Amino acid sequence: MPAIADLCSFCVVLAIGMPAAAMHGHTASLRGQAFVGPATPRQLSLLPQSQRECLSTREGVARPSSRVSSRPCHMMADSGRESDAILFMPGKSPQARTQSKRFEQWYAAPESEDQQQDAPAEIEVEDPKTALESLVLSTERSLDWPVVKLALANCSVTTMGRYAIETMVPILEISEVERVYNALEEVRLLQDQGVSLPVAKVHDIVALAGTAGKGDILDLDELKDCAYTLVAMQEISQLLSDRDDTATLSDIAQDIDLNPEIVRLFERSFDAAGQLSIRQYPQLDALRKEIIQIEASVTKTMDSIVKDSAYASSLQDKFYTIRENRFVLPVAVVNKNKVQGIVHGMSGTGSTVYIEPQQVIDMNNRLRLAQGELKAEEQRIRTSLSQKLGSQARQVRLATKAVVEIDCAGARERLAATMDAVRPEVKDGNDVVLRRARHPVLVLRGVKPVPNNVQLTGDQPALVISGPNAGGKTVVLKTVGLCALLVQHGCWVPCEEGARVDLFRNILASIGDQQTVEEDLSSFSSHMKTLNTMVVNSKEKSLILLDEICSGTDPAQGSALAQAILERLLDQGDPRLVVTTHYGQLKALANVDPRFGIAAMQYVNGAPSYKIVEGVTGESHALSIAAKMGIGEDLLERASVLMGEQAKMTKTLEALEEQRARAMELADGMEQERDQMRIQMKIMESREEDLRKRSKKLEAEGAAEFLNRVQDAESSIKAIIKELQQSGGTFKDVDVARAKIEKLQSSVTTNLEIDQSDEEENLEICEGDTVLLLDIGSEGVVLQAPAKNGDVQVKVGPLSMKTKLDRLRKVLKSSSQKNSAKGGSRLGSMG
Known about the structure:
This protein is of the alpha+beta class. Helix content is about 50%, strand content about 15%.
């Protein structure tokens, strides 16, 4: 590789990634290659304009042009060494580019002493406001907020609502957040009630109403869209008027204040096919029918001419067509004098002339007149409707704004349903309390993320998260940031009930590599610039998210600098901080500063579980993860040797962390089992309560039925006795009457409970016996012998339940007969 001075006079490299070896060839190409040898004007002319503007040639050396392209133009060799690179800094002035140290070192011509003394020392100072705005945009990108915003926009049903969401800015007042949340809840309430608002039928007719208000006449398609929109707006207003349970939506809908007469006129003006209605405009019906009749006559005549053998030799083809809105015949040019009529043009080849036959000229004239009358009438109607619409231009604008707000509320509700989100509590503070929060982007992608708890309060405003690489620290960080952004934009958060996310004014994050060649900043330099912007702008309500703070430099200096920055952030305001780190000094902050809480990502069974554990610190598990990524065992052993005693301590800590994780896993399992048992207990209690209610109902129904039967039997017996007394019957009559009475007794006592003697007999119940459950009136099978306390487990259908022994009766084959006999004796004794 030649020295850079010789290289500058030898060639101009014109593409990123060009191998150095290619510079010694003798070929030239347009893009992705290099011009070898001094660049000629012809070679420069072959370049795109943006690259030509990046170059100027003076004494064979590439120099920055006085004109700056708006697009990046980087030119460097593939070796990656600074000495092999020719760098142009886009977006900066020539003076700013020449202030780059690398530019001065390698490419700038030495200035004279006079130039160095005369040149003023200019230092570019970035506007703090611009720096904050840039950081806010960077934060949204790093948190994947555009993904969530796109999902929200896709939930809208109107083009206006989609545009409103895409250009949405954060809400600054809590009262506005609560208003938006109330609207979301009311949309869900209407859906539960089966009320459908025709928001999707509303089109953007604001511009059309404005042009109509200026005197323009709209065409029929535009007026049709306006009609559908006005009717839909009016329907929305009517559905939301005079409702007590949708106060917010009803308040929004008050801006839909259209003239009902004009809305009805537009509604009646178009039929189901989208044409002007003949019911509203009957004069159109007569004109349309006349046109149809004339067209039928013309086509009939033209059909007869085409089929007429006298014209067969003269016609070019056996069909007719329309030219200049008149029916014509295609006639061969050589036969044009054989067909009487009016010529309406020739074909492109000149071989065919189009002649309107003499037979249809009058009919065509009448057709044109009728069509003109119809067009004039439609023009009059369009003018009238346009004027009516123009008079409502202001009302249409306000109504559209209201519909857009309702559409946005519907979009937020659909997004909340998709994410299974809940309404968080929003207060005038800086607190974040998330219960089983899930990453919104992962939820939208159909992934089931591990839910986690995060809490940031006034007593503990900062949380330091440690743990293994790829263990989920950044996911937790982004979850907190996205939940705060959701609240800023009036959306619910994907977590369990009881969440609280206050309204932050600034949400600032530093996540990932922020290196920028354009600004000549390394990863660490860019990170420092971001941290400085945070320090300057965190005095108001701010949520600050820092991923691997002050990494990429000496660990001792980086951890000290990180602690100093975190302390300054907390000292100068009341922000909330979430920080991820591998620095031991930051992990120990909770021991010296109560404002810091600690948490770790769980690592169990040699893999991350993505669960956050509060109150503990986590190891990085670098060697374990390296082994999983395929790093050789010999390298890992060598790394352990180099670590010395620290390797033993690390292994001990990792083992303790593993044991702690397993213990927590067991505890979680036991808690889940307890939850399952609680659920089962609630189900059993509910079933038992249902059975108890059913038993009481059956008892009441059985008692009422028995009483009715007894009363009927007593009435019948009294009637029989009275009949005998009045007739003075014989012994044979008495026997007949006794048989009737016994039959009545048997029918009454069929389903009575058995007497005490049978109860004593039936108390001897064993496993497998079929029993009658007196409380519910159903039969079941005994699953096991009665316990000493009288509890018996009985299976009734698919259910298994526990009851008392004295509430069971053993079912015998002859039980019904015994019941009848014993019941009869009891009833007989009554007589």
